[in-house]
Design brief:
409 residues, alpha+beta
Length: 409
């Protein structure tokens, strides 16, 4: 009995020590610069790159990143501590023009010193104006009423844009996610129906084989089925359908279907897709006609285009399956309709509207720790208001909710 008690005492002692060490190691996290969290990340044509922003000069090909556009950006962080009633009582922020100084706790550009404040959002950089096209590094430590002084946060890097102003919203580039079919059905010999499970704005990449006797196939992309086939003639409805002939080369080759632009939503008033992404079309189904070789899910890839989205930032589950499905539909819709980097009216005109942007803003706030796309959409609408006279009044509500959620005045 005494041996068991000793073991339990030792186990509790180890557990208590681990908790103490964990508490001592707690430090600010979730660092944001001008509301952008992943400022050190780069992307190549929509896909995440392994090259950080401070090594951008080493890249041969163009890379995209969330450029900081303000000469005096604002910093935000999440205060560490899980004890009930924990609040920040002070902070210290440093900014350096090299990673080594920041890692050593030296702010050779700016050191706020210890500031007695509970503010952890929109803390404005107060050093000399930053220079364009340059990488910077910052970190923060906090003091709380329950755990005292924290460790330094991780070093956070960001890079400024080629042109800076006193204030301009930063934003992420659009990104791509590779998605594979949830099912492939042979409708008849030589014709397969591919189902991706959900609708999305995207592009299609196929890997097909040909022995030289079959020189072409026809690819159909659509959002709706009719009689087990993709609906070919949706008329003037909002349902999309596209048909693309594809010439095959002998052997096994990978083909990227070039999406044709729609005149209605690529005009002068529309928000255009950036060149590094290319044109997109919404589709759930793909039908490949005239192809008799085996077709695996890995051979049909939808490159879904969207604004960066953290699937783990929110969750909901209850005993009512209908509510669960509604939640999933709403959450997915926020991600799926962010394809242009600005809240637009879907695939109709691809133009932002003030009332729609307000709804998108509040929905997005509910499912992700993301504020920049709403602010960018708001500022775009201030410069490009829509025709209904009263709709611009929604800008007041959008600005007010921005302040309530970000704390940035």
């Amino acid at each position: 009995m005494s041996t068991l008690l000793n073991r339990l005492t030792l186990l509790v002692s180890f557990a208590f020590s681990a908790l103490c060490l964990q508490a001592a190691d707690k430090k600010p996290f979730g660092l944001m610069t001008d509301l952008i969290e992943h400022t050190g990340q780069t992307w190549q044509n929509g896909y995440a790159s392994n090259l950080p922003v401070w090594q951008l000069e080493e890249a041969i090909e163009p890379l995209q990143y969330a450029a900081i556009r303000s000469s005096h950006p604002a910093f935000s962080w999440i205060v560490p501590g899980e004890t009930g009633g924990t609040r920040q009582t002070a902070y210290r922020v440093i900014v350096a023009d090299n990673r080594e100084d920041a890692a050593s706790g030296r702010g050779n550009l700016w050191d706020s010193g210890v500031v007695g404040s509970d503010r952890s959002v929109a803390v404005r950089y107060a050093g000399e104006a930053l220079k364009p096209g340059k990488s910077y590094f910052w970190r923060v430590k906090t003091v709380t009423n329950t755990e005292g002084e924290s460790e330094w946060s991780e070093v956070k890097a960001f890079r400024t844009a080629d042109r800076l102003s006193e204030y301009e919203t930063a934003y992420y580039p659009q990104v791509k996610t590779m998605e594979f079919p949830v099912g492939i059905t042979e409708i008849r010999p030589g014709t397969r129906l591919v189902d991706f499970g959900k609708d999305a704005f995207g592009q299609l990449v196929l890997t097909l084989a040909s022995d030289g006797t079959r020189d072409s196939v026809v690819v159909h992309l659509g959002e709706c089925l009719e009689g087990g086939r993709i609906l070919r003639d949706p008329g003037k409805s909002t349902i999309r359908y596209r048909r693309y002939p594809l010439a095959l080369l002998k052997g096994t080759n990978t083909y990227r279907i070039k999406i044709k632009k729609d005149k209605r939503n690529t005009g002068s008033a529309a928000v255009l897709m950036p060149a590094y992404v290319g044109e997109v079309v919404p589709f759930r189904y793909c039908e490949i006609e005239g192809y008799e070789a085996p077709l695996s899910p890995a051979s049909v890839v939808r490159e879904t285009v969207h604004y960066p989205f953290d699937e783990t930032a929110s969750s909901f589950r209850c005993s009512n399956d209908t509510l669960n499905q509604i939640w999933e539909l709403c959450k997915y819709s926020v991600r799926a309709t962010s394809f242009s980097g600005i809240y637009v009216d879907g695939d109709r005109e691809r133009i932002p509207y003030e009332a729609d942007a307000l709804i998108n803003q509040l929905c997005h706030y509910g499912v992700d720790r993301e504020y920049a796309i709403a602010r960018r959409s708001h500022e775009y609408l201030l410069q490009h208001p829509t025709w209904p006279t009263e709709w611009i009044l929604q800008a007041l509500s959008i600005a007010w909710y921005d302040y309530l959620y970000t704390g940035d005045s």
